[in-house]
Write a structure and sequence with these properties.
The protein is an alpha/beta fold and 220 residues long. It contains eight helices and 13 strands. The strands form four sheets. A five-stranded parallel beta sheet has the order 2-1-3-6-7, sandwiched between helices. Strand 1, helix 1 and strand 2 form a beta-alpha-beta unit. Helix 6 packs across helix 8. It starts with a strand and ends in a 5-residue tail after the last strand.
Amino acid sequence: MKRILIIEDDEAIRAGLCRSLASDMMEAVGAEDLASAAQRINAQQFDLLLLDCNLPDGNGIDFCRDLMSKMSIPVIFLTVRDSEIDEVAAFRAGACDYVKKPFSLMVLRERIAALLERREKRSDLYVDRRYRFDFGAMDFSVDGERVYLGATECKLLAVLVKNADHVLSRATLTDALWEGGEELNENALSVAVSRLRGRLGEKSISTIYGLGYIWVGDRE
C-alpha cells in the first residue's frame, strides 16, 4: 500500500484528490497547511507528496527545500503559479515534477504512477523518517546529518535493511559479511553490530535473543 500526502488549502480540491487517488493500492491523506503536513510526516511514512506553493502558513517551495535536507521523498508541485521562475525554484528545492492548475486528473495519475515506479526500482536507496541510505553513492544520513561507515558496517547495513521484515541469524550475517571463507572470532559480528549501532542509534538494530538481528529503523 502506497501512501500519498496532499498538501492543499482548498478544501474542495484536497477532498476531491483524496477521493480520486485513493484505491486498493494507494492511500491518499490530506493536509490543509504546512504545520499539519509536518505533523503528519513526523507521524507517518509517505511515498509521495502533492504540494501547493501558496499555503496559509508559508511557501511550499521553502517547505520542500527544508524537507529535502532531512529526507528523500518524491514531491510533485500542484499549483496555479505558472512562471518559469517559480518552476525553476521548485526543481532547485528538490521537486520531481511541477503540474500547473487546472490539470488533467488522468495525466496526474500517470505522473504519480511513473514517479512511484521509478522510485521502486531504486533498490540501492533506503529512506524512512530518520534514515537515508544511498548505497550506490555510499551516502548515509541520520536525522539529516551525514554519517560515515566502514566497509564492513556498510555491508552489514545493506543486508539488514534489504531484509527489514526478517530476523537474520548470526550465521546468515557472518556468511554475508565474510563469505563464510574465514575462521572468525565469535565476537566479530557482535563488534560490527555494535559499531553500526554506535553510528545509527542503539535501537536501530534489535537483537532477537536466540535467533539473531533485525533492522528496526525509524520504528525504534
